[in-house]
Amino acid sequence: RAQTAAVMQQAGLRPTRHVAPNISSISFYRSKTTECAQRLQALSWEIAVRRGNCFSQALGIAVTSYLTSISDGGPGWRGYANTWLRHGYLITFEGLLSAVGKELGMIEDASVAV
């Protein structure tokens, strides 16, 4: 690197990190890099939207379950309240999906949300 800088200085050129846009051998790689970056951003956005949708569903289920447990009210639930304080509220998710086709994607989305 130091040798390259010395050679450029002797030739009267300033060292630069910019690659000129008129170099034809580089333009192909620039366009491919831009295309890959755009696809990555699109995929990242799609994953974020799916994650947000799945998480909101899981949160809704959890809140509904908790509020239903509290609203039952009977004399036996007071013992559960102390257990919840110590260990947290336990929620179990169950699904009847197979791991074939689009259902595999549903299982993967649910595992991320939970």
Quickly count the helices: 4
Mean pLDDT reading: 80
Q: Helix content range of the residues, please?
A: over 70%
> What is the straight-line distance between the termini?
51 Å
Number of strands: 0
Proportion of strand residues: under 5%
Based on Cα principal axes, name the global outline.
Answer: elongated
Task: Describe, in plain words, how this protein is organized in 3D.
There is one protein chain. By secondary structure, the chain is mostly helical. Helices cover 71% and strands 0% of the residues. The chain contains 4 helices and no strands. The chain has helices spanning 2-10, 24-72, 77-87, 102-113. Helix 2 packs across helix 4. The longest helix has 49 residues, at 24-72. The chain is elongated, with a radius of gyration of 29 Å. The two termini are 51 Å apart. The mean pLDDT is 80.
Short summary:
The protein has 114 residues and is an all-alpha fold. It contains 4 helices and no strands.
How are the elements arranged and paired?
Blueprint: H1 2-10, H2 24-72, H3 77-87, H4 102-113
Helix pairs in contact: 2-4
Structure characteristics:
elongated, 114 residues, mainly alpha, 0% strand
